[in-house]
């Protein structure tokens, strides 16, 4: 159980275009999903937290107009990188958990590698 | 806010040797502690977690970790390393009031020599 998928696994796009990444919880309902960014050989940096049906909460320094997050259902959250630039190239990882349980664990997706040319 | 430090950026051990990866956390209340493993180009897999109770926690793949409050540590151990254990290991700490607020250490890259 507790499987989280991401699609696509990797994407290459041209500078200036937008890219959408999907995160799905396959066998549980995720009231909270998280989006992380990981640079090569570095740790995960939390970008934003999204709760189903409400606006995402962004970490300091993360541009909410550039990284649009939609958590439309209990099993799906999307991250859209708008007007992507080469510096947005990174490994994006989502995770999902069930809010309300203080002993809940985040389950991570396999990640999406974005390369902006 | 909570934080976590992994002092060792890179560790190399021989196959069959024992392993200990260090993790120190900073948090004013009782933390929720996690170890994750990440293979190249992959997401994170949960190895084990500590919320309360027995301070020695058993995880998957033969790993264990011990919570030591007096040392603010949660070191990961394995008695005999396999070549397949080569990966990046991340320690993470969650706040007791909201376990969803989780912070990661910088990671320790494990290389296993044949």
Question: What does the model show?
Answer:
The complex is a heterodimer of chains A (117) and B (114). Helices cover 0% and strands 51% of the residues of chain A. Chain A has 117 residues and is an all-beta fold. In chain A, the strands form 2 sheets. In chain A, strands 2, 4, 5, 6, 9, 10 and 11 form a 7-stranded mixed sheet that branches. In chain A, strand 7 and strand 8 (76-81) form a beta hairpin. Chain A is globular. The mean pLDDT of chain A is 89. The model of chain B has no long low-confidence stretch (mean pLDDT 91). Chain B contains no helices and 12 strands. Chain B is mostly beta strands and 114 residues long. Chain B is 0% helix and 52% strand. Chains A and B meet through strand 5, strand 9 and strand 10 of A and strand 5, strand 6 and strand 11 of B.
**Class computed from helices, strands and strand pairing of chain A:** mainly beta
The N- and C-terminal alpha carbons of chain B lie at a distance of 41 Å
Question: Fraction of residues of chain A in helices?
Answer: under 10%
Instruction: Characterize the biggest β-sheet of chain B.
Output: 6 strands, mixed
Counting copies of identical and different chains, the oligomeric state is heterodimer
How does the helix and strand content of chain B classify structurally? mainly beta
Topology, please?
The complex is a heterodimer of chains A (about 120) and B (about 110).
Chain A lengths: L3 E4 L2 E4 L5 E7 L6 E7 L5 E8 L5 E2 L8 E7 L2 E6 L8 E8 L9 E2 L3 E5 L1
Chain B lengths: L2 E3 L4 E5 L4 E3 L2 E3 L5 E7 L5 E7 L5 E3 L5 E5 L4 E6 L8 E8 L7 E3 L3 E6 L1
Parallel strand pairs in B: 2-12
Antiparallel strand pairs in B: 1-4, 3-9, 5-6, 5-10, 7-8, 8-9, 10-11, 10-12
């Amino acid at each position: 159980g507790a499987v989280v998928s991401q699609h696509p696994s990797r994407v290459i796009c041209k500078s200036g275009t937008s890219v959408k990444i999907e995160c799905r919880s396959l066998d549980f309902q995720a009231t909270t999903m998280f989006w992380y960014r990981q640079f090569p050989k570095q740790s995960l940096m939390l970008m934003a937290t999204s709760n189903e049906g409400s606006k995402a909460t962004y970490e300091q320094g993360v541009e909410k107009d550039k990284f649009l997050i939609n958590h439309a259902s209990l099993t799906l959250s999307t991250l859209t990188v708008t007007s992507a630039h080469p510096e947005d190239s990174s490994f994006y990882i989502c995770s999902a958990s069930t809010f309300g349980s203080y002993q809940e664990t985040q389950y991570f997706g396999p990640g999406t590698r974005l390369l902006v040319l | 806010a909570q934080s976590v430090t992994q002092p060792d950026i890179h560790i190399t051990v021989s196959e069959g040797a024992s392993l200990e990866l260090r993790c120190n956390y900073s948090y004013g209340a009782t933390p929720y502690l996690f170890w994750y493993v990440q293979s190249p180009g992959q997401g994170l897999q949960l190895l084990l977690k500590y919320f309360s109770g027995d301070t020695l926690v058993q995880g998957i793949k033969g790993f264990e970790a011990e919570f030591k409050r007096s040392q603010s540590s949660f070191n990961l151990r394995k008695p005999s390393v396999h070549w397949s254990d080569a990966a990046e290991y991340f320690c993470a700490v969650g706040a007791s009031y909201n376990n969803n607020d989780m912070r990661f250490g910088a990671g320790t890259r494990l290389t296993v020599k044949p």
